[in-house]
């Protein structure tokens, strides 16, 4: 008999809502790009350029690039430390590169010797250590896995051509078995694909892989780069009924809110993988405002770190993440487990999020005149109190023809992105 594979794309809307709930509520994750490319760190033969793409940027031959494996020995790698940095930042999940485009596997893969156990002097199962550390700390665990593979002759005719490149062989005998290994050994919560734009990859293959993986673990959350539907760097789907659970804007934030699931991934400096000479760090203020903007627009924020070849997350990243964590400690109610309002903003200075029961609106702002804030599009419940998160006493407010005027406290609880908590009667429409 022929057993039809279950079609998980036919899942009902409410089933998807349930499956995605934790992911949507978690809102903030930490991306980790780490692999052999941390060794050249953005410089090859004295020339700058490339990070995790350095193999392609400098057209490094496979046999040459492979030599980095013998040097990979990150003595300062400490999975618990990385997870504690994520946790202190307020990140609720981690997405780690099991395999980037260079094809090097960061776990003990059975289908290749080009992995951390067989090809490096380090010989520690990095993914196991990370997965265990995440589990111990209640952090959800995700894996980034590249479909494009510059090291596989059947997947990359340009770099290391097989006599007759056979992509189906790579897909069925390498890509799928690797993903099955990852699911069985490390039980990830998220699979985050990339490199799906190669012409060999098709929507039908994306659907087949999606059903195969959900069949192995039905609760998996999988990004839209498993399919061909991603529209450029803006990252949302170009057509309906594509495989994948959420859109993936890269290095940008959606221009407006969306009720579809989406996650904006972004670097703290200019690069994903560690680059020694890249000191162009975004400020903590900008990162916090990005998180607020993303949450107000109904998305998730996946913020990247690129650890060094020694195994350390660069200090400038750690500092900024710690500042985000300090801000979130005071203001977490306004970010996690909130919903996006159609009317999610008022001018450039105000963003709104809403509690899931719809009873509370959070107004997040960066500027005020004369220690007052005026809001036109939120109507507090009559006689209710308005609080600033991090301040004990309720604030004085007046209602002036539908516009409320809130008197701000003299001492503010943080440096920027202050949050008012407003019990909401109804929202004025635009
Ligand atoms: O892993 C990080 C980067 O290495 C990787 N994605 C993040 C998360 C990345 N790969 N490529 N890029 C980023 C930029 C590539 C853009 C292009 Fe395209 C690929 C241009 C043409 C093919 C994407 C797909 C945009 C248009 C089609």
TrEMBL record:
The keyword Signal applies. Residues 1-332 form the Glycoside hydrolase family 29 N-terminal domain. Its EC number is 3.2.1.51. It is an enzyme of class 3 (hydrolase). Residues 348-423 form the Alpha-L-fucosidase C-terminal domain. Keywords: Glycosidase, Hydrolase, Signal. Alpha-L-fucosidase is responsible for hydrolyzing the alpha-1,6-linked fucose joined to the reducing-end N-acetylglucosamine of the carbohydrate moieties of glycoproteins. Belongs to the glycosyl hydrolase 29 family. PANTHER family: ALPHA-L-FUCOSIDASE, ALPHA-L-FUCOSIDASE-RELATED. This is alpha-L-fucosidase. It comes from Pedobacter gandavensis.
């Amino acid at each position: 008999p022929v057993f039809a594979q279950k079609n998980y794309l036919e899942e009902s809307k409410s089933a998807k809502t349930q499956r995605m709930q934790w992911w949507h509520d978690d809102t903030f994750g930490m991306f980790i790009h780490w692999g052999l490319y941390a060794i050249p760190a953005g410089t090859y033969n004295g020339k700058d350029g490339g990070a995790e793409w350095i193999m392609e940027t400098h057209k490094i031959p496979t046999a040459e690039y492979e030599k980095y494996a013998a040097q990979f020995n990150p003595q300062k790698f400490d999975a618990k430390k990385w997870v504690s940095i994520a946790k202190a930042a307020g990140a609720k999940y981690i997405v780690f590169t099991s395999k980037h485009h260079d094809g090097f596997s960061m776990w003990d893969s059975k289908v290749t010797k080009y992995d951390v156990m067989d090809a490096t002097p380090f010989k520690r199962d990095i993914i196991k250590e990370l997965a265990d550390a995440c589990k111990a700390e209640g952090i959800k665990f995700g894996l980034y896995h590249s479909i494009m593979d510059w090291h596989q002759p059947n997947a990359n005719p340009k770099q290391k051509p097989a006599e007759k490149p056979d992509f189906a062989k790579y897909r069925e005998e390498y890509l799928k078995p690797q993903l099955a290994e990852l699911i069985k050994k490390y039980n990830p919560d998220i699979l985050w694909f990339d490199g799906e734009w190669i012409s060999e990859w098709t929507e039908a293959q994306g659907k087949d892989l999606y059903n195969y993986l959900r069949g192995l673990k039905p609760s998996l959350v999988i990004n839209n780069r498993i399919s061909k539907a991603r529209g450029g760097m803006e990252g949302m789907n170009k057509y309906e009924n594509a495989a994948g659970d959420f859109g993936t804007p890269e290095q940008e934030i959606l221009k407006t809110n969306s009720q579809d699931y989406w996650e904006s991934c972004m670097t703290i400096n200019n690069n994903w993988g560690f680059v020694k000479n890249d000191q162009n760090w975004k400020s903590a203020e900008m990162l916090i405002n990005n998180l607020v903007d993303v949450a107000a627009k109904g998305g998730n924020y996946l913020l990247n770190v690129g650890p060094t070849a020694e195994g350390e997350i660069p200090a400038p990243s750690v500092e900024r993440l710690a500042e985000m964590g300090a801000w979130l400690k005071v203001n977490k109610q306004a970010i996690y487990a909130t919903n996006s309002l159609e009317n999610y903003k008022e001018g450039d200075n105000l963003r709104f999020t809403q509690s899931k029961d719809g009873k509370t609106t959070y107004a997040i702002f960066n500027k005020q005149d004369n220690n007052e804030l005026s809001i036109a599009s939120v109507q507090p419940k009559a006689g209710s109190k308005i609080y600033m998160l991090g301040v004990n006493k309720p604030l004085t407010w007046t209602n002036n023809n539908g516009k409320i005027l809130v008197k701000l406290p003299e001492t503010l609880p943080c440096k920027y992105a202050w949050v008012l908590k407003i019990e909401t009667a109804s929202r004025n429409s635009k």
